[in-house]
Specification:
This protein has three helices and four strands, in the order ββαββαα. By secondary structure, the chain is an alpha+beta fold.
Length: 154
């Protein structure tokens, strides 16, 4: 039996999931009762496909900026090191449906974007590594599979 790891995603059998999907990966309660809900927004099938870095980087900038137009309790959106998805952290909103709506609206905003926000050397640590077209292709693919988002396992 595999040793239980401290990181939730390290305990997830990546051979059993079927991307794309959106799943609640964990909940953390703060000392004052606030709850942070961490979601796994999986765009690519683990160990079969991954997002190219310029597209992933641009999609991260776009989602980080545009998602906040649709939800006021976003803590963070951050890419996974494996380049297959993102983590979304929301405080004090446990509605899975709200997350699905947020993602859908944000991805539509990505498709309508004409530039990547903060895509310059002053605001970004690797401004040369961006692709608006790549980010939009990822958003389009994810939206096309919206009917699959609630199904995590094959």
């Amino acid at each position: 039996m595999t040793k239980k790891m401290n990181v939730e995603s390290f305990n997830l059998d990546h051979t059993k999931v079927k991307a794309p999907y959106v799943r609640l990966a964990g909940t953390t309660e703060g000392a004052n009762g606030d709850k942070i809900y961490k979601y796994d927004l999986r765009f690519c099938q683990p160990n079969k496909a991954h997002m190219k870095m310029p597209a992933l980087h641009s999609l991260e900038h776009l989602m980080a900026e545009l998602s906040r137009n649709h939800h006021e309790h976003i803590v963070d959106i951050s890419p996974m090191g494996c380049q297959t998805g993102f983590y979304l952290a929301i405080i004090n909103d446990d509605s899975y449906e709200n997350v699905l709506t947020l993602l859908e609206k944000t991805l539509h905003d990505v498709l309508a974007a004409t530039e990547v926000p903060a895509c310059n050397e002053v605001q970004c640590g690797w401004a040369a590594s961006h692709s608006l077209e790549g980010a939009q292709a990822l958003a389009e693919d994810m939206l096309a599979a919206k009917h699959e988002w609630s199904r995590v396992f094959a």
